[in-house]
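user:
I keep going back and forth on a fold encoding question. Separate attempts, laid side by side, tell us more than any discussion would. Would you put together a sequence-and-structure record for a protein of your own picking? Write it directly below this note and I will take it from there.

assistant:
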Amino acid sequence: MSDNKILNAIRGKGKNLEGEMSFFDHLEVLRWHLIRAAVSILVFGGLAFYFFDQIWDTVIMGPKKPDFFTYRMMCKLGQLMHSDGMCITEIPGKIINTEMAGQFSLQINAALIMGITLGFPYLLWEIWSFVKPALLEKERKAAGGFVFYASLLFFLGILFGYFVVAPLSIHFLTNYQISPEIQNTFTIDSYLTSVATLTLVSGVVFQLPIIIFVLATIGIVTAKFMREKRRYAIIIILIIAMLVTPTPDVTTMIVISIPLFGLYEVSISVAGRVEKRKLIKEKEFFNA
């Protein structure tokens, strides 16, 4: 009896050891996926660091210039609408550096942000490559195109954030004064952080259809729930648009609101499609 107990203990240890090795093997695989993703980010970051002069003048400082694309288009739209308030001719506020290594740190941080932005699709692909083997064939088909659609939405959000949210927010914040005696002087870190945050957050917000797809698949969110809460979503979107609009012009607020409304409606459609697929699978299961 004692010999059997010893043999069973050894077998149990062997199974546990096999499970632990399998777990650590998965960690090793994940580590290499993350390493490759980090290398891609560093490569893009290195390129951004090398071409930083062009990136600084045209990309980072773009929203600070009155001849920025967004401001010019708003002025043309204002002329068509006979509204002079939409023409932005000056972005006040002086940008300064207050640290000895401030400008060098700025270049490194900006290059890293550009690396993360450009390397985002490859990061998603590495994550998908790690998760994919653990999914069933049906789950793989259902999640097909994840990297493409997530990357597409991310870059659409980046464009919306950079050409709409960031410039209008910068114009509003640089012109906002509680007293004429207080001069707006901003540090370079504050400016870079504002532009990067507004742009990247918009890219993340545009992932809403992907997030809704996952939540609807799990069963947490339904299309019916989102339709019922649409009025609250509309209020939140209008508040956001009002905060970043440089003038009380309703036209400008609508320009910002429309893409966000569209994003919410697309998310409702995505949730509805997920529910239809679930119903079809349930019918096939009970009819089998």
Remarks:
- The two ends are 49 Å apart (CA to CA).
- The first strand starts at residue 94 and ends at 96.
